[in-house]
Every structure is written in structure tokens, then in C-alpha cells.
């Protein structure tokens, strides 16, 4: 399984990396700290199984990023993991 983690906090990325690798050795992790890099990875690597996404990253927001993916015809399961307050 290949998972793309998109988050701008280095400590959070380290923690998620540890959790995923401890859970299974069959998981390949890709990481991006901004939406532009995440989109590039998704376009280049068609084997990504799902996306673990923070909603609040400088330069954009997660919901808008998901909409951009859908507008390009890219459909991936998305797990939103965020500290953002959503009202």
C-alpha cells in the first residue's frame, strides 16, 4: 500500500511515519509539505492508494486541494487528519 502524507509540520510527519511503519512493513510512504508538491507526486505516481491530508497548510487549504484533484479526474480515498477548527 502506498500512502501520501500531506502536512507542513515536521514533527507531525515524523510521528505519522513512525505510526505507519510500526503498523505494517508493507506501507510505502510519500510525504509532501505543501499542496503543489503533493499534486506533483500524485500526478507522477499513479500507484498512490490513499491520501492523509492536513487541512491547513500555508498557500492553500485541504478542501480546495481535494476539489482540485476531483476537477482533474483524480479520485483517491482521503483521510483528513488536522488540528484545524472546522465550523
Give the averaged pLDDT, no decimals.
90
Strand order of the largest sheet: 2-1-3-6
| Count of DSSP strands | 6
- Proportion of residues in helical segments: 25-40%
Could you state the oligomeric state of the chains shown? single chain
Radius of gyration: 12 Å
Q: Helical segment tally?
A: 3
User: Strand-residue fraction?
Assistant: 15-25%
**Main sheet specs:** 4 strands, parallel
Termini Cα gap = 33 Å
SSE series: EHEHEEEHE
Structural class: alpha/beta
Overall shape: it is globular
Descriptors:
four-stranded parallel beta sheet, 87 residues, 6 strands, alpha/beta, two-stranded antiparallel sheet
List the helices and strands and how they pair.
Layout: E1 2-6, H1 10-23, E2 28-32, H2 35-44, E3 50-53, E4 56-57, E5 60-61, H3 62-71, E6 78-80
Parallel strand pairs: 1-2, 1-3, 3-6
Antiparallel strand pairs: 4-5
Can you offer a commentary on this structure?
This protein is an alpha/beta fold and 87 residues long. Helix content is 39%, strand content 24%. The chain has helices at residues 10-23, 35-44, 62-71, and strands spanning 2-6, 28-32, 50-53, 56-57, 60-61, 78-80. Strands 2-1-3-6 form a 4-stranded parallel beta sheet, with helices on both faces. A two-stranded antiparallel sheet has the order 4-5. The model has no long low-confidence stretch (mean pLDDT 90).
Concise account of the structure shown:
This protein has 3 helices and 6 strands.
